[in-house]
Amino acid sequence: MEQLLRQGPALEPADRARLETVAIDLSTVFLAAIADVSRMVPAQTRQQALVRQIKSFVQHRLPHSDLSPVSIAAAHHISVRYLHHLFRQEEQTVGGYIRAQRLERCRTDLADDHQIGRSVAEIAARWGFADAAAFNRAFRLAYGVPPGEYRRHASAGHA
């Protein structure tokens, strides 16, 4: 919340409005939990806060190859079925969200000149892709080019 206050003025108005809504929802759920009146918080607000919490959890555990719907659900004391339900409401799947986040981290590392000493396979493994061939297919599908080619274009300033 402190970072939102500090960085808020630098954000676009639309982004600032969305973050304000998120901050209000999170504050509501937090205060309700402290007051032990969470049942008074609308179900939609609780679900939105839970999805944000789950996404944050995923972001922090992307490098772990054992990150899965089962481990996510267990960590949040919900069923796997309910976890899938929450993500369906977001019009995505849990696995799709994890994969997209991992691919984006890999893409960022491949474009980073400081990561040039790492192979594509090392970068993929760093972000939880255990199978290099599966990573190559997923990357090509997501970005239209194989990761090695993306890296070459990025280092030439064309990414």
Automatic annotation (TrEMBL):
Q: Which residues form the HTH araC/xylS-type domain?
A: 52-153
Q: Where are the transmembrane segments?
A: none
Instruction: Give the signal sequence positions.
Output: none
Instruction: Tell me which InterPro entries the record gives.
Output: Homeodomain-like_sf (IPR009057), HTH_AraC (IPR018060), Tscrpt_reg_AraC-type_HTH (IPR020449)
Q: Which Pfam families match?
A: HTH_18
Domain of life (superkingdom) = Bacteria
Q: Which UniProt keywords apply?
A: DNA-binding, Transcription, Transcription regulation
Q: Which PANTHER family match?
A: ARAC-FAMILY TRANSCRIPTIONAL REGULATOR, TRANSCRIPTIONAL REGULATORY PROTEIN
Protein name per the record: Helix-turn-helix transcriptional regulator
Q: Which organism is it from?
A: Streptosporangium algeriense
Kindly list the organism's lineage.
Bacteria, Bacillati, Actinomycetota, Actinomycetes, Streptosporangiales
